């Protein structure tokens, strides 16, 4: 297997080693969003950023896309559990504060969260030129949610279907490699701009699935690819069989396959931004609710 991602500065093997070393701390360190019991409720919390995608977005003044991507990174994680997002905070670190740029980002962040009935509580902006290079910025989001309903991955059964929801494109993963390909002239300006499309926010649609009891498990397809994210949300006695030929061809992924071969499947979402595991009796209703994301079946749960 090629090690292009490692050469671009991201070591997936070390990420796996870190996850393994933390596994003894419990299921919260494996999940997309952790939870704690409090007075009869499950309180959920997740934290995420948008990686090095922020670099070209900030350089191009695409502050609204940064906000959309940050909400997607966190609330798509929250959507993997039967949890209602309640509140959100952000942390912004910059080399030099640009009040106009940060204001545009925060106003858009507040607007997008409003579409998900989640309140922006505020956050922290830190100007640290001693730590960050000139022009640098990073952001992180923190979402809090709750649920009064039971959720158990033990409901997953042999033969359950895997339903994919299409991605808008690259979303916010693998950008160290995307940027490297662009800098080397292997991606055109047009191809690179396409990679900067805002991430789809699946939260509202997937919440409806949970509310109607149509779903058994769900995975946000982020770093690590489709398979590695799916197996995080099912019991260890199961695996998944996937048919990638069922995914509608997308030009950018055809190009990425030319550039990095099979490694593409371990880095990118390959056109599938979110996955749902469900009983096949619920397929029609799921397709109706998630219609805007062109749902399709491309796998099933199997015993190991």
For the largest beta sheet, what order do the strands appear in spatially?
A: 1-2-5-3-4
Query: Over the alpha carbons, how many angstroms does the gyration radius reach?
Result: 19 Å
Based on the coordinates given, report the CATH architecture of the largest domain. Answer: Alpha-Beta Complex
Q: What fraction of the residues are assigned to beta strands by DSSP?
A: 15-25%
Helix content: 25-40%
Mean pLDDT equals 91
Number of domains: 2
Describe the overall structure.
The chain is an alpha+beta fold and 304 residues long. The chain has two domains: 32-147, 60s Ribosomal Protein L30, Chain: A (2-Layer Sandwich); 153-303, PurM-like C-terminal domain (Phosphoribosyl-aminoimidazole Synthetase, Chain A, domain 2), CATH 3.90.650.10. The protein is 35% helix and 24% strand. It contains twelve helices and ten strands. The protein has helices at 4-7, 12-22, 54-59, 63-78, 99-114, 175-183, 189-195, 203-211, 225-230, 251-260, 264-267, 283-289, and strands at residues 34-38, 41-48, 84-94, 119-127, 137-147, 161-166, 217-220, 238-242, 272-278, 296-303. A five-stranded mixed beta sheet has the order 1-2-5-3-4. α5 (99-114) links the parallel β3 (84-94) and β4. α4 packs parallel to α5. The model has no long low-confidence stretch (mean pLDDT 91).
Keywords:
12 helices; alpha+beta; 304 residues; single chain; 10 strands; globular; 5-stranded antiparallel beta sheet; 60s Ribosomal Protein L30, Chain: A; 5-stranded mixed beta sheet; 2 domains
Quick recap of the structure?
With 304 residues, this protein is of the alpha+beta class. Helices cover 35% and strands 24% of the residues.
